[in-house]
Amino acid sequence: MLADSLTQLLLSDVPDPTDFPKSPPGLRELDSSLRCNICGDLFDGPVTLACGHCFCSLCVRNALAEKAECPICRKQASETQLRVNLAIETCVAAWKLARTHILRLTKEEEERLTRPKRKASDFERIVIESPMKKRKRAGGYDERNSSPTPGSSKSPSKIRPKSPVKAKRVVSQQDDDVIEISSSPVSNAPDIPSAADLVTCPVCEKEVPFALINKHIDQRCPPPPPSDNDASTSKDAQQTAWSKLMAGGGGKGRPKERGIDEEPIPKASYHTLKDKQLRELLLDHHLPVSGDRSTWITRHQRWVMLWNANLDKSPNLRKSANDLRSELKKWEAEKTGKKKTVVDDVAGYEKRNKAHFQALTEAARPRKVPDKSPSAVAPGSPDVASPLATPRDIILVDEVEEVQIG
Amino acid sequence: MSLAPPRSSTKTSVTGSTTEGAGSVTRRLSSELMQLMMSSSPGISAFPKSDANLFEWVGTIEGAPGTIYAGLTYKIFITFPPNYPYVAPNIKFESPCYHPNVDLTSGAICLDILQDKWSAVYSVQTILLSLQSLLGEPNNASPLNTEAAGLWDSPSEYKVQLMRAYRPISDGPSA
């Protein structure tokens, strides 16, 4: 539909790189580097041109049909140069799986940092001060703490990338450091949790029992055990979570009819073809033969493009021939189909079409009176002459009623 | 963009896309709109003209600070063809603009990226930024308004003509 309501659009979710905040660096850039510069979506059948620039196969085939140059650098280019970019395709598939998860994590982190951050700053102080005191013993810390900054003066955004790293290092040398933390001044760490208390993991920000926090971080933050503190359950939970994640992605590869003749279709030189041959060309691919010769040509051109672009995807990501056919149909409908005209001057539009409206009203009347439906002209309706409620209303008129596709 | 709803209300869902069913042009236009609203580029804005038609936008361009157009705001119309972005959108000045590369009466613009140098990777944002820089740095070699091109080198006279043609756009967001 061309006439999407704007409010609808604004409320809908258009996934794009700005979904990610700027502060954990690289996420927004990662998302945008996996998107096609033409359509703005994640690469769908990525292909590379001779200059090295990468696009969705269908997007770049469309662009090359307009002009034989790379849309980014304008180097001369042609469809024969296109090479499938398998690495990017795999990358996009993995990112699609991870994206929602990472978005959720960054969002949780954002929310957590906007809450009063007593715990976070305490942790920062412990982490920074304890190694400073034991500089002599734990020699490895010297270089890392060459510019010690008091945690309190840091902005929250600066704490974030640093504290997890340091915390991890402290914890990984637990034999020495656990003692050091608990012996640090009470004013700095007023609430040392007991073993069963839940503490927030500095890396993944999940609530984890204090006794398990070191193990949790060492294992790179597995999901916390659902019910108890048993380590084996935690591992099981981790496995279930992973298999769930993988299954969710695998579910996308729905079963498809796979044609035997998955060969690229060569372009036809239409001017050498007679109508009959052109017709056969369409029928060969089970395409509709409605419309005139020029419709046939555009239809076949589009079909070749859709078909060949589809072949640039890995077999498990390809669409079925029937899916492509309905895509072609949709494209034609979008191209030739209903164009909505916005009527701004409602009064003028009414005046101009008065005769037409009256004819319609006349035609409707004999049918409506007998069945007395509530939709019939309401008794006492003030302005029958002006059926178009208020002058502020916007009226949409279908310009082309018929879509000529079989 | 005063019309842009707060971020939280536009980007709440983290799951799949709800524009999935829409046509590719509509999808691209909505993502461009989102991009424009999120990036807050100074001095440029654009928004669909009406609720019902995503293919016609109204935009504003402010003259860049330090140029002769500083402090002036122009209204433009953008019309997208059905095969956008493979074909350039149609752009013209709605407010009268005295400029070597703009036709004063029709608002037509002479800018290579809007004609033969168009590329599918350009967007509304890149167009508006190009137009903004075109205001301060006209291409006097191919003028549409020869008088303006001739006066460009004498700024004080140019400014007089510029201000004579200028019509401030009414306040408030243009939508």
TrEMBL record, chain A:
Q: What is its EC number?
A: 2.3.2.27
**Residue span of region Disordered:** 132-190, 217-269, 358-390
Cross-referenced SUPFAM superfamilies: RING/U-box
| Coiled coil stretches, renumbered | 314-341
Instruction: List the GO cellular component terms.
Output: nucleus; Rad6-Rad18 complex
Bias class Basic residues marks the residues at: 157-169
Q: Where is the composition biased (Basic and acidic residues)?
A: 254-265
**Where does this protein have compositionally biased stretches of type Low complexity?**
146-156
Keywords, A to Z?
Coiled coil, DNA damage, DNA repair, DNA-binding, Metal-binding, Nucleus, Transferase, Ubl conjugation pathway, Zinc, Zinc-finger
Per the UniProt entry, what is one GO biological process?
DNA damage tolerance
Q: Which reaction does it catalyse?
A: S-ubiquitinyl-[E2 ubiquitin-conjugating enzyme]-L-cysteine + [acceptor protein]-L-lysine = [E2 ubiquitin-conjugating enzyme]-L-cysteine + N(6)-ubiquitinyl-[acceptor protein]-L-lysine
Gene Ontology molecular functions = single-stranded DNA binding; ubiquitin protein ligase activity; zinc ion binding
Output the Pfam families linked to this UniProt entry: zf-C3HC4_2
Gene3D superfamilies assigned: Classic Zinc Finger, Zinc/RING finger domain, C3HC4 (zinc finger)
User: Start and end of every RING-type domain?
Assistant: 36-74
Region forming the signal peptide: none
* SMART domains, alphabetized: RING (SM00184), ZnF_Rad18 (SM00734)
Indicate the family of this protein.
Answer: Belongs to the RAD18 family.
Protein name, UniProt field = Postreplication repair E3 ubiquitin-protein ligase RAD18
Q: Which organism is it from?
A: Jaapia argillacea MUCL 33604
TrEMBL record, chain B:
Biased composition, class Low complexity, residue ranges: 8-19
Protein name (record): UBC core domain-containing protein
Concerning PROSITE patterns, the annotation shows: UBC_1, UBC_2
A Gene Ontology molecular function term of the record: ATP binding
The answer to keyword Nucleotide-binding applying to this record is yes
List the CDD domains: UBCc_UBE2C (cd23791)
Q: Where is the UBC core domain?
A: 24-171
* Species name: Jaapia argillacea MUCL 33604
Active-site residues, record numbering mapped to chain: C110 (glycyl thioester intermediate)
